[in-house]
Amino acid sequence: MVAGKTAICTVGHEGAGLTYRGYDIADLAAHACFEEVAHLLIHERLPDRQELEAYRNKLRAARTLPLKLIGVLEALPGSTHPMDVMRTACSVLGNLEPERDFSQQRDAADRLLGVLPSAVLYWQRFHGDGVRIDTDSGEDGTAAHFLHLLHERSQSDAHCRALDVSLTLYAEHEFNASTFTARVIAATLSDLHSAVTGAIGALRGPLHGGANEAAMELIDRFDSPADAEQGVRDMLSRKELVMGFGHRVYRESDPRNAFNKRMARQLAEEAGDMRLFEISEAIERLMWSEKRLFANADFYSASVYRYLGIPTHLFTPIFVCSRVTGWCAHVFEQRADNRLIRPRAEYTGPAAQPWVPLESRP
Amino acid sequence: MVAGKTAICTVGHEGAGLTYRGYDIADLAAHACFEEVAHLLIHERLPDRQELEAYRNKLRAARTLPLKLIGVLEALPGSTHPMDVMRTACSVLGNLEPERDFSQQRDAADRLLGVLPSAVLYWQRFHGDGVRIDTDSGEDGTAAHFLHLLHERSQSDAHCRALDVSLTLYAEHEFNASTFTARVIAATLSDLHSAVTGAIGALRGPLHGGANEAAMELIDRFDSPADAEQGVRDMLSRKELVMGFGHRVYRESDPRNAFNKRMARQLAEEAGDMRLFEISEAIERLMWSEKRLFANADFYSASVYRYLGIPTHLFTPIFVCSRVTGWCAHVFEQRADNRLIRPRAEYTGPAAQPWVPLESRP
After folding, report:
1. In chain A, whose CA is at the least distance from the CA of B14?
2. Measured in whole angstroms, how far is the alpha carbon of residue A166 from the centre of its chain?
3. Is B321 contained in some domain?
4. Calpha distance B288→B253 (Å, rounded)
């Protein structure tokens, strides 16, 4: 079903697995930092050096949380789903700093890019560690900022770069379910925060953003490659779903997987602990030989995040911190040439029924 | 674009303008109360007398707000958009009372049906009148409850019945933008609160639920039928959009309009003040003679709500209090036979671009 037009992204077109505004994901992952990618998506072109510096400064300043949002984050239970925390944080930001018209939409997007990592990590550290953190980490990049808030100090360049590349890989993916949600909401001419809040709610689902967490849970079940091979074989024979494989659009492979796999290997070598990587590789091999299903972007990103010391329940929130760039780009594109998205349904229900008064109902 | 199947509703099918599970909207508006309609949508059939009594009791008990939600409502600015309040309230309810799996989905829906009117009116009365209201009004029906909380006392049967019919008319409408949003979110297997939060964000837009507020603002501009006729004529000559007319699906008329119009007339007569009704009628006549556009559900419901003493900014929140029944019914239907909603896009962007290093950018 083709639901609209976009100039932002291609997925699975011939000769180019994934492009953002015409740039191949391989170039972006190899050469760009996430802030360049965010600028490309939200501000529609790659920044020059001076613009990139100014953009980093702008995003750094956008990380401070409004006091009332901090109050809400502290009031939410520590046991709530972190994606629900992000959904509420985005909605509350829209209460506190509403988008009054569309003329400042890109500023509102940059503010979200700054606030979302701060919000989820403030909540995590408050309820997990009982501390009230200062969300102004002083770090230059979003990835370094995220890891700093999580681990309370700056992390190695290699670790920051791994998360930075992951943010680039997850930033945009055409009309996936969360982005399409954002566009359907935006097409009623609602505000940016409504569109992003809805998108977070869609990404939360296990068939969408929740997949990298499910992949981690799968990998965690096994102690060795042999154990994993046997375990997944058993799952397949029971016709259980193995998360992190195949894709609704890609047919041959997921162009993001090679980057995630290489990073997972490097981080494993650096850590001197290959176990997780080798288990993952055993599962990947088996899924290919048995089902001809390839690892998608979610599969090795689970290992990457684990090697970075990120708890599993924060995997999907990281996806939000990245994909918010793509969501906003699609909202702006929808607004620029808008038509209400109002599909029809095929009716499969009962034929017209005569009215039955309350007293006469069986 | 046909985006799926539904057994819940027909819109604009031949011989039946609007049906909920096979029942004609004319029968429902004439004979049913809103709680019967909610039961029909959420619990899939009309209740008998005993079931209806039990259902009313359940909904009455569901009106109590969690203390932490009250804290959030008080912390939100009084100047925020009331639809943003409802969006946040729904999201926060999902934090406090999460849907852990789908087995209790209908209880979660009934809870939303109870909480949403209480939440928006608590916020309204706290920030508007500086009072902390008890949201347990003791009223039997949702309409009477809403008016009681708003006006601090029970309202006349005629007024309660008018709002009750309005809730029935707005309860369900196939794959409109907010319902489709809810289904796209639900199709990732996300939770009910995410789906409804997203739907509220979509309904907020002026091209969707915001239309009855826009109709009221239009009607309010004029002092007399003659004034209105001239004013709308001028708008048409300037090619301005006149809200409350025409429909994306209906071609000849909106079957809900006759009920709204009749109620508006009755309430005007009862109030001894025909001005608003006569202005509305003048606009309706002109839009038909000049543009062959008919009044849709939003047009006369504006006058109905005004005669009930409801401030304009609460019009779209009332739509939420009603449509949440349809949204939930569609979420359950989506879950029962789920497939991820992931459309494709036609690419209109730049061709593949070679990478340009930061230093070389123009």
Report:
1. A352
2. 10
3. yes
4. 11
Q: Is B52 on the interface with A (CB under 8 A)?
A: yes
Q: Compare CB distances from B206 to A189, A204, A350 and report the shortest one's residue.
A: A189
Q: Does residue B141 lie within any of the structural domains?
A: yes
Retrieve residue B159's tokens. Answer: 């007024």
The answer to whether residue A358 is domain-embedded is: no
The answer, as to whether pTM is greater than 0.90, is yes
> Would A69 be classed as within a structural domain?
yes
Do B173 and B298 lie in one domain? The reply is: no
Instruction: Please say whether the beta carbons of B165 and B259 come within 8 A.
Output: yes
Please state which of the ranges A185-189, B164-168, B352-356 shows the lowest mean pLDDT: B352-356
Mutate to test the interface with A, among B50, B172, B347, B359 (most CBs of A within 10 A): B347
Kindly state the tokens that stand for B338: 């789920």
Residue ranges in chain A whose pLDDT is less than 70: 14-16
∠ Cα A296 A208 B97 (to 5°): 145
Residues A197 and A231 placed together within one structural domain of the fold:
no
Residues A175 and A47 in one domain: yes
DSSP reduced 3-state for A143: helix
Helices (H), A204-274: 211-220, 225-237, 257-271
Strands A2-6 and B344-347: parallel
Of B91, B345, B358, the CB nearest to A5: B345
> Can you give the CATH number for the domain in which B228 is found?
1.10.230.10
User: Would residue B127 show up in a list of annotated catalytic residues for this protein?
Assistant: no
pLDDT digits (tens, 9 = 90+) for B190-232: 999 999 999 999 999 999 998 889 999 999 999 999 999 999 9
Note the ipTM here: 0.97
Contacting residues for A262 by C-beta, under 8 A, at least 6 apart: none
Q: State whether B76 and B218 are in the same domain.
A: no
pLDDT tens digits, A75-87: 999 999 999 999 9
